[in-house]
Amino acid sequence: MFESKEPTAEPSDPQEPHQRRFWRGVLARLRNNFLAGLVVIAPVGLTVWLIWTVTGWIDGFVLPFVPQKFQPEQYIGIDIRGLGVIFFLVFTLVVGWMAKGMVGRSFIGWGERVVGQMPVIRSVYNGLKQIAETVFAQTETSFDRVVLIQYPRPGIWAIAFVSTNAKGEIRRLVPADDPILSVFLPTTPNPTSGFLLFVPQSDVIELDMSVEEAAKLVISAGLVAPEDPQVLAAAAAAPRPIQQAARRARDREKIGA
Fold first, then answer.
1. What residue ranges of the chain have pLDDT lower than 70?
2. Helix (H, G, I), strand (E, B), or coil: what is residue 102?
3. Cross-strand bridge partners of residue 76
4. What is residue 197's predicted lDDT score, i.e. its pLDDT?
5. Is 175 exposed, middle or buried (0-12, 13-18, 19+ CB in 10 A)?
């Protein structure tokens, strides 16, 4: 009778596990380098793309109103990006200079009286004018304080910006003993949209962070949080071993995030 012989397994290469570990290490290093480069390139690339896009949008809107003889493209044969922005800045400076004079104020007053007689355009113009004066004027109505308020229910806190104190009918009708604050509650990740809330001053917690730091916190959905000044001051005054322990704890928090 013939004896059946099972195929014998080939001897494994002792170098194979080391090779697999080597290639896994190479791939891990490449991945880490790629992510580190992406962290550096992404903000710069997005900023350049945004500036390039906005500049092109302004050029496309402004240049059609500029006479052809004032556009250098017909002389040098090259489309200069940003030329519309320059024309817009110069035009705005000239209009601002003229608006400060007697003739400019008279002309603006006459134009506003004409617009005031148009039912629909009057409402749109007055609303846009108030928004522009509020945003661009350096007055007390600008966002200069960051607060915490309880929204949408007690026990849940949200970041908000104080615009001004409530005035007029709202302040008269709201039943509160302390001042009423007009606060803007931004949404994440787009802080330009949000809600206008009227909150008693006793119901808000004022923060030490700046408006820019709070905006970064809102846009990043809480990932980019500013350091607490009191914690930093306590860490600076602590002995060196405690400072090192606090630094290691912050590093572990960043790695976990």
1. 1-16, 77, 131, 133-142, 229-257
2. helix
3. none
4. 92
5. exposed
**What pLDDT score does 1 carry?**
47
Dist CA 37 CA 39 (whole Å): 5
CB 141 within 8 A of CB 162: no
Judged by phi (left if over 0) then psi (alpha if -120 to 50, else beta), residue 166 lies in beta
Interior angle at CA 236, CA 230 and CA 241, nearest 5: 125
Q: CA 92, CA 130: separation in Å to the nearest integer?
A: 19
**C-alpha–C-alpha distance, residues 194 and 214, integer Å:** 14
Identify the pLDDT of residue 229: 65
Q: In sequence order, which residues have a C-beta less than 8 Å from that of residue 207 and are 6 or more positions away?
A: 146, 147, 148, 214
Peptide bond into 152 cis (omega under 30): yes
pTM of the model: 0.49
- Cα–Cα distance, 16 to 10 (Å, whole number): 14
Specify whether the CB–CB gap between 181 and 202 falls below 8 A: no
pLDDT of the residue at 110: 81
Q: What are phi and psi of 136, to 5 degrees?
A: -90, -20
pLDDT score at 257: 47
Angle at 203 between CA 133 and CA 147, to 5 degrees: 50
In a 3-state reduction of DSSP, which class is residue 181?
Answer: strand
Are 214 and 143 within 8 A, CB to CB?
A: no
Look at residue 106 in the predicted model and tell me its pLDDT. Answer: 81
Query: What is the sign of the dihedral through the CA atoms of 84, 87, 93 and 96?
Result: negative
Tokens matching residue 81: 């990006």
Please name the helix (run of DSSP H) or strand (run of DSSP E) that holds residue 67, with its range, or none. none
